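To whoever picks this up:

The nightly regression suite flagged Diaminopimelate epimerase as changed. Nothing in the input moved, so I suspect the structure step. Input below, exactly as stored in the fixture:
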Amino acid sequence: MVKIRNIPFSKMHGSGNDFVVINQIDNNYRLTSSQIKKLADRNFGIGFDQLLIIEKPTQAPAEFKYRIFNADGSEVSQCGNGARCFFHYLRMKKLSSSNEITVETQSGMIVLSYKKDGLISVDMGVPVYDYKQIPFISTNTTLPTVTVDDKSYEFYPISMGNPHAVIKLASLQGVDLVKIGKVLQKSAAFPDSVNVGFVQVIDKHTLSLKVYERGSGMTLACGSGACAAGVVAIQKRWAQNPVSVLVDGGVLTINLTPQGSVELLGPAEWIFDGELNASQISSHEE
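Regenerated output under the current build:
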């Protein structure tokens, strides 16, 4: 049994992608994956897509470090919407007054910038196309496909610090996106599983996107998924840089910089503060 104290938290969202944020800089709460899964339950817990844990940095020049846990308790390396909520939390709680900070994540350093219009910019780094680094296992030289219900769908593997598969569709309606997503996530070709993005091109500067996220399922928005979709769309000339990505929770802007890195721009909102009662979450053992 893991015994823990009451834990203060903030509930936040970025374009409908919702998070619980916990400051662990001066504490060590040691939540287990089963406890995280219970807290993520929207009927019996707080309910969230992901949990963000703020810690002291271990590398310069980072001012803070944060870790990301999916609703199923698994830890992941990158989350663009979470990064914006994390920065908004720091400013709201007066942990930082800077308009730009460098942050340590599991996938490396990222730079966050607070804009005059209240939006937050995230430098998501340079996208990775190398199959070994994504990781994606394939012996074919042609564009990979997934077959579901006797229909084949081409997809583009890419990493934004976490693995993505981008599928272009004529319409996001009338297709079982969840079924396709589950098939790809269970595929041996993605040993670390994968976030599956479904893209519809609206015009040269606008995409519509739905993402079936690993560990969370369908969400209202996925920041790294929007980056992956935007990069693929620009590279394949489906769209032109910069591109607006329409998600169920709002609009995200993707800009591919001259240096090759990806800038994600979007909002972050505080919902409420609360406190986790130890008795509510100490009933699970790892």
